[in-house]
Specification:
The protein is an alpha+beta fold. The protein is built from 20 helices and 30 strands. Bound molecules: pterin cytosine dinucleotide.
C-alpha cells in the first residue's frame, strides 16, 4: 500500500469499459419538470444517457433502509421511496438525476454539461427543529411534519418522579455537529456483465460486500447469486462506506443493460455531495441529582437530522444505538430518552465512526461537567461517585443493555494518574503568555462487536448480524482463511492471522486472510461497529477449533490411537502420554493425500466453516483525559496532552489497536475543534471542499499516551476481545470540549458547541470580556 501497490477500484480497468458521470441536482428541493437529454446523447463518445424513467421502465425498485424502527406508539417509521436516479423530485443537492455513459471519463463529464433539466425549485429546510415546526416545507407525502419516527425508551414516569424529588437538576442544550467522511479513496464502483452468462460482477469500495449484493439484487429483481461483489483494497471507510448508495445500483443496472463494463469514480468534490454524512443531533437533556451529586434521573430529548431519505442504518443510529448507551458508565436509576428523526433537504446521515455512541457519550459527559460545576464538586469526583463499580457486573442498565464486565472506576483512576490530574492546578498557574489552560475528561462505554442478530431483529433490523469464517488448509500446511468482514485500514491481515497462528501453531507467513468477495466468502455482514475481531475473529476461532477437531481424527487414524487420546498443542498432534506425534503440516498433507483413509468415518480434506452470532455486544469502555491551552488573543486551542485508558478486552495486537485509538482520537479531535458540515438556509452546502471543511492536520494531533487494561476480557466470546476501532472517536470529542470549557471557565464561559474553532472560541472570549465577566 505504502509503495503504491494497492489495488483500488479506480485501479481496475476492464476491456471495453465505459465511464459514468452523474448529473446531480444543484437544488436542495425541486420538482424535475423535464429532462432534455438529446444534446448529451449526441455528444462525442456518449453511449447512453439514462434517467429515472429508464430505470422505472426496467422496473428497478427503490433503495430500502436496512433498519426499520418503530415509533413509540407502535407505528412503523415513515419510509418514503428513494430512487437511485431521482423520479420527478429532488430533495438534496447532489441527488443523482441522470447517468451519462461514455467512452471516456472526460467525454462523460462534457456530455453531462449538456443535459438540460427544467426544475421548479421549492422551499427547502435544513435545520432539524425547523423541519418539524410549522410551517415547514414538506419533503415526503408519507411523512407528515417531516417526521420519520418518534422513538422513546426508558421509564418516563420514574424519571419525572425522581426529578421532582431531586435536590438539583442540571439542564443542557447541545449540538452534535454534522460531519463529512473523508477517506483517502473517494467512493468508486465498476460493474461488468460477464459475457456468455447472466452473471454480474460489481467492484465497489464498500465495507459490506454481501449487503451490497442483497440490495442491488433486490432492486434489480435478480437472484443474489447472479451478482458477485468484490470490495478490493478500500482506502478507508469510517462507516460511511458501509452503507448502500445509488451509484451501486445505477452502474450495475447500466452494465447489465449495455452489456459493457461501466465505471464510476467519485471526484473529491463529488464526494462532498454524494456520501452520507454523520451525527447532526440537537439535544436537550436534564440530569437530576441529590445533594452529594449522585445521579438520580436522566431525561434526554434529541432531534436527529436524517437528511432527505432514510439511509441504510440512518434510522437506527439515533434511536436504537444511541439511546442504548445513555446510561453510559454511570449508575443512574431512571432514564428516559425520546428521539425524533426528521427529514430535511440535506444529504442523508448514517454511520460515521462511533455512530450514535459519541453522541451518547457527549450528552453524559457534558452533563457530568455542568452538574459538577453547578454543585461545586470536582469534575473527577462527581464521576467517581457515580461510576458503576466492577462489583455490580453484570450490570443491567435501566435503558436496556446489560454490561457483562468492566472496571470503570479502575480505568478512570488510572487515566487521572497518567494525566497527573492532581498536579494540574500547578500547571494551570504556570501557563505562560496568558494562555488559558484546561483539563478535561470523558468516560465512555461502547456497544462494540455489533452483532447480536436477536437484539437487532427485536429493534427492527432487516438483516442478520452474524459472521462467517472458512478455513482451507492446503496440503503444504498453508492456510487460507476467508472472512465475511472487510479490511479497509484496520490491519485484519495481521490480526486475523495472529489468531490462527496462536491457535494452530502455523507461522504467520503461511497464513493468508481473504475478505471482500461474495463468491469466495460463504457469507458476511461486513466491517462496521467495531465488530470484526469480536464477531469475525470469534467465527475464525471457532473454525480453527473445528480444524483441530478434524486434525485429531486424522492424527488418531495415522497414529493408530483413539481420537480422545490425541492432544493438540503448539502445532503438534500427539498421543497423550507418548512421544508419538505429527505436525500440523503432516496432518495437512495426509488430509489432502488420503490414500488409506477409512472413508466411511473420515472425510478427506481439511477445511471448515464456522458462524458466530454473539449473545450480546462486547462493551468496550475507557476513560480519556485531555489538556489544552487556549491563546486568548486568537482563540486557538492547542492540545498539550492526551491520555487514554481503554478496556478492549484481550488485545490481539497492541500496535494495531494503539493505531486504532490514535486514528479515532484524531477524528474526535476533528469533530471537537475543526470539522463542521454547513448548509445555508436554502440547502446549499457551504463546506463543499477541504478549503471550507477543516480536517485536522498532522500538526494538530498531539502525542497520545494510550494504555490498555486487559483485566476484564469479554465474557461471552472465545477471544475475550472487545472492539477498538471506534473507541477514540467516542471519547475524544467530549474530553476535548471538557478541557476547552475548563480553560474558559475562569472567563465565565460555560458552554460552546462543537466545533470549537478558533473563531468561535475567540468570540466567546471577546463576549465574556465585553460583558465584564472576564
Ligand atoms: N483489535 C485487536 N484487539 C482487540 C480489538 C481489536 O487487536 N481487542 C484489532 C483488530 O484485530 C483489528 C483492529 O484492531 O485489526 C480493529 O478491530 P475492531 O475493533 O474489531 O474494528 P473493525 O476491524 O471492525 O473495524 C471497524 C472500525 C470502525 S467501525 C471504523 S468506522 C473504523 C475503524 O474501525 N474505520 C477505519 N478503524 C479504521 N481504521 C482505518 N485505518 N480506516 C477506517 O476506515
Amino acid at each position: 500500500m505504502l509503495r503504491g501497490g494497492g489495488r483500488f477500484v479506480a485501479d481496475i480497468s476492464l476491456p471495453g469499459e465505459l465511464h459514468c458521470t452523474l448529473v446531480r441536482s444543484p437544488h436542495a428541493h425541486a420538482v424535475v419538470r423535464n429532462i432534455e437529454a438529446s444534446p448529451a446523447r449526441a455528444a462525442p463518445g456518449v453511449v447512453a444517457v439514462f434517467t429515472g424513467a429508464d430505470m422505472a421502465g426496467d422496473k428497478v425498485g427503490p433503495m430500502r433502509a436496512l433498519w426499520a424502527i418503530r415509533s413509540s406508539d407502535g407505528s412503523a417509521m415513515a419510509e418514503p421511496p428513494r430512487w437511485a436516479l431521482a423520479r420527478e423530485r429532488v430533495r438534496h443537492i447532489g441527488e443523482p438525476i441522470a447517468a451519462v455513459i461514455a467512452q471516456t471519463r472526460e467525454q462523460a463529464h462534457d456530455a453531462a454539461e449538456l443535459v438540460e433539466i427544467d426544475y421548479q425549485s421549492l422551499p427547502a429546510v435544513v435545520d432539524a427543529r425547523d423541519a418539524s415546526a410549522k410551517p415547514a416545507p414538506q419533503l415526503h407525502d408519507s411523512a407528515p411534519g417531516n417526521v420519520c419516527f418518534r422513538w422513546a425508551r426508558g421509564d418516563e414516569a420514574a424519571v419525572r418522579l425522581a426529578t421532582q424529588k431531586a435536590a438539583h437538576v442540571t439542564r443542557i442544550d447541545l449540538v452534535n455537529n454534522r460531519l463529512i467522511g473523508a477517506a483517502i479513496e473517494p467512493r468508486a464502483v465498476l460493474a461488468v456483465s460477464d459475457a456468455g452468462s447472466e452473471k454480474l460482477t460489481l467492484y465497489s469500495s464498500t465495507q459490506v460486500p454481501h449487503h451490497i449484493r442483497s440490495y442491488v439484487a433486490e432492486q434489480l429483481g435478480i437472484a443474489e447469486g447472479s451478482i458477485r461483489v468484490i470490495a478490493p483494497d478500500v482506502g478507508g471507510g469510517f462507516g460511511y462506506k458501509g452503507k448502500h448508495y445509488p451509484e451501486e445500483t445505477i452502474v450495475t443496472w447500466a452494465a447489465r443493460r449495455l452489456r459493457q463494463p461501466v465505471k464510476w469514480v467519485a471526484s473529491r468534490s463529488e464526494s462532498f455531495v454524494s456520501d452520507n454524512q454523520g451525527r447532526d443531533h440537537l439535544t436537550n437533556a436534564a440530569l437530576a441529582l441529590d445533594e452529594q451529586g449522585h445521579f438520580q434521573a436522566l431525561r434526554v430529548e434529541t432531534v436527529a437530522n436524517l437528511g432527505a431519505y432514510v439511509s441504510t442504518f440512518g434510522a437506527a443510529i439515533p434511536s436504537a444505538i444511541y439511546s442504548a448507551l445513555l446510561a453510559g458508565v454511570y449508575r443512574t436509576p431512571a432514564i428516559f430518552v425520546q428521539c425524533t428523526g426528521v427529514f430535511t433537504n440535506t444529504l442523508p446521515t448514517d454511520a460515521y465512526r462511533g455512530a450514535g455512541r459519541p453522541e451518547a457519550c457527549y450528552v453524559l459527559e457534558r452533563l457530568a461537567d455542568r452538574a459538577a460545576c453547578e454543585l461545586g464538586i470536582d469534575r473527577a469526583e462527581i464521576r467517581r461517585r457515580n461510576l458503576i463499580p466492577a462489583s455490580a457486573m453484570p450490570y443491567k442498565t435501566p435503558i436496556g443493555p446489560t454490561y457483562d464486565c468492566g472496571d470503570f472506576p479502575r480505568l478512570f483512576a488510572r487515566a487521572l494518574e497518567m494525566a497527573d490530574y492532581p498536579g494540574f492546578s500547578k500547571r494551570r498557574a504556570e501557563a505562560r503568555n496568558n494562555r488559558l489552560r484546561g483539563i478535561g475528561m470523558a468516560c465512555y462505554v461502547e456497544s462494540s462487536g455489533v452483532a447480536p442478530s436477536r437484539f437487532a431483529g427485536m429493534l427492527g433490523a432487516r438483516t442478520g448480524f452474524f459472521e462467517t469464517a472458512l478455513i482451507r488448509v492446503q496440503s503444504d500446511g498453508g492456510i487460507q482463511a476467508l472472512l465475511g468482514t472487510h479490511n479497509h485500514g484496520q490491519g485484519h491481515a495481521t490480526t486475523m492471522a495472529q489468531i490462527l497462528c496462536t491457535q494452530l501453531g502455523v507461522p504467520l507467513r503461511k497464513i493468508e486472510i481473504l475478505e471482500g468477495d461474495t463468491d469466495l466468502v460463504p457469507y458476511g455482514t461486513g466491517t462496521f461497529g467495531s465488530r470484526s475481531i469480536a464477531v469475525g475473529g470469534s467465527a475464525l476461532h471457532r473454525a480453527a477449533g473445528k480444524i483441530i477437531a478434524k486434525g485429531k481424527l486424522i492424527a488418531a487414524h495415522l497414529l493408530e490411537a483413539s481420537g480422545g487420546d490425541i492432544a493438540f498443542a503448539d502445532g503438534w498432534f500427539a498421543v497423550t502420554g507418548t512421544d508419538r506425534r505429527l505436525s500440523f503440516a503432516e496432518i495437512a498433507r495426509a488430509a489432502n493425500v488420503p490414500h488409506y483413509f477409512p472413508l466411511e468415518t473420515l472425510e478427506p480434506g481439511l477445511q471448515e466453516t464456522a458462524v458466530y452470532d454473539p449473545p450480546a455486544f462486547a462493551f468496550s469502555n475507557g476513560a480519556h483525559l485531555c489538556e489544552v491551552e487556549i491563546d486568548p488573543g486568537t482563540g486557538e486551542t492547542r492540545i498539550v496532552g492526551y491520555w487514554g485508558v481503554d478496556d478492549i478486552g484481550t488485545v490481539i495486537n497492541p500496535m494495531i489497536v494503539e493505531g486504532q485509538i490514535h486514528g479515532g482520537v484524531a477524528q474526535g479531535l476533528g469533530q471537537a475543534l475543526h470539522e463542521h458540515c454547513a448548509y445555508d438556509p436554502g440547502g446549499q452546502l457551504l463546506s463543499g471542499s477541504f478549503m471550507d471543511y477543516a480536517l485536522p492536520r498532522a500538526a494538530d494531533i498531539p502525542a497520545i499516551e494510550s494504555e490498555f487494561d486487559e483485566s476484564q476480557p469479554c465474557t461471552h466470546n472465545p477471544l475475550g476481545a472487545k472492539g477498538a476501532g471506534e473507541a477514540g472517536a467516542i471519547a475524544a470529542p467530549a474530553a476535548i470540549v471538557s478541557a476547552a470549557l475548563d480553560a474558559l471557565a475562569p472567563l465565565g464561559v460555560t458552554g460552546l458547541d462543537m466545533p470549537l474553532t478558533t473563531d468561535s472560541v475567540w468570540r466567546a472570549i471577546s463576549s465574556a470580556q465585553n460583558s465584564g465577566l472576564a
